[in-house]
Amino acid sequence: MAASPIGGGTRLAGVIGWPVAHSRSPQMHNAAYAALSMDWVYVAMPVAPQAIEPAVRGLAGLGFAGVNVTIPHKQAVAALCDELSAGARRAGSVNTVVVQDDGRLLGDTTDGAGMLDAIGTLPDGPALVLGTGGAARAAAAALLDAGAEVSIAARRGGAAAALAGELGATSARWPVSEPAALIVNATPAGQSGDPGELPLERSLLAAAAVVCDLAYRGDGAETGLVAAARNAGVRTVDGLDVLVGQGARAFRLFTGREPPIEIMRRAVRL
Q1: What is the pLDDT of residues 119-137, one digit of tens each?
Q2: With the C-alpha atoms ordered 77, 79, 83, 87, is the resulting torsion angle positive or negative?
Q3: Which residues are tagged catalytic?
Q4: Using one digit for the tens of pLDDT, what is the confidence trace for 74-121?
Q5: To which H or E segment does residue 66 belong?
Q6: Is the pLDDT of residue 56 over 90?
Q7: Domains of the chain: which residue ranges?
Q8: Which residues contact 14 (CB under 8 A, 6 or more apart)?
Q9: Three-state SS at 162
Q10: What is the CATH code of the structural domain delimited by 112-237?
Q11: Are 131 and 189 in contact (CB under 8 A)?
């Protein structure tokens, strides 16, 4: 699956974030393009917060088919799009921008649906979402729409309470003390620095049926949350599992084609 030479007819897609060097989206999408003999390329673009508006406004002029959006831009980009999907409006967060034929920007989110794809059947019992950023908003909204009982917890208790009220969830005290059947970490804990960092006590992990960590490390090491949950005998869904679910949906939005998911799944772990 040799990559095609990049030329004037090559379609462009990518991911914007700050930082973004750790992203495995380029290797995943480029492997998919190569497998389907598509003249496309996907690149990672570091965009500082103060540069997000001109970066997004320039996508159509530069010929991009679309971009994915990662921390810390998901909520800021939602305000820069010309229109939002129903899911993006509900979540107040955008992780996928599609440049339409007329140059207008459609903001969408594959965060929540991609997470649900990766988790599969939801366990019986309450779900706990850690965090209040764009990924947390999308995860909580998707779980609520799937019929789960959801609580939201974060170090900033006021932000958690506000988000819970907005979405129709409940808020939990920080630090978390009540167990949940499903724990979703939507904070950057363990993504960089100490790989053993945990966003909550180990005792709560053993009481869960499924632990899903939206964070993943660029060096390929397990996050502390995934390692601790796995060692406790709990079913785990790591950030790369979720990335494939999200990426497959973004691939369809950008290209209009069905993604080679198994190739994407293998490529993301190389």
Answers
A1: 999 999 999 999 999 999 9
A2: positive
A3: 74
A4: 999 999 999 999 999 999 999 999 999 999 999 999 999 999 999 999
A5: strand 64-69
A6: yes
A7: 11-109+243-267, 112-237
A8: 26, 42, 43, 44, 45, 64, 67, 68
A9: helix
A10: 3.40.50.720
A11: no
What is the reported pTM?
A: 0.93
- Confidence bin at 4 (pLDDT 50/70/90): low
Sign for the pseudo-dihedral over CA of 75, 77, 79, 83? negative
Question: Which of 6-20, 84-98, 188-202, 238-252 has the weakest average pLDDT?
Answer: 188-202
The SS3 call for residue 120 is: coil
CB 64 within 8 A of CB 13: yes
**Strands 96-99, 64-69: pairing kind:** antiparallel
Q: Is 11-109+243-267 in CATH node 3.40.50.300?
A: no
- Integer Cα distance of 220 and 22 in angstroms: 10
> Torsion-angle region of residue 70: left (phi > 0), alpha (psi -120 to 50) or beta?
beta
- What pLDDT sits at residue 221? 86
Per the listing, tokens 């997470």 go with: 115
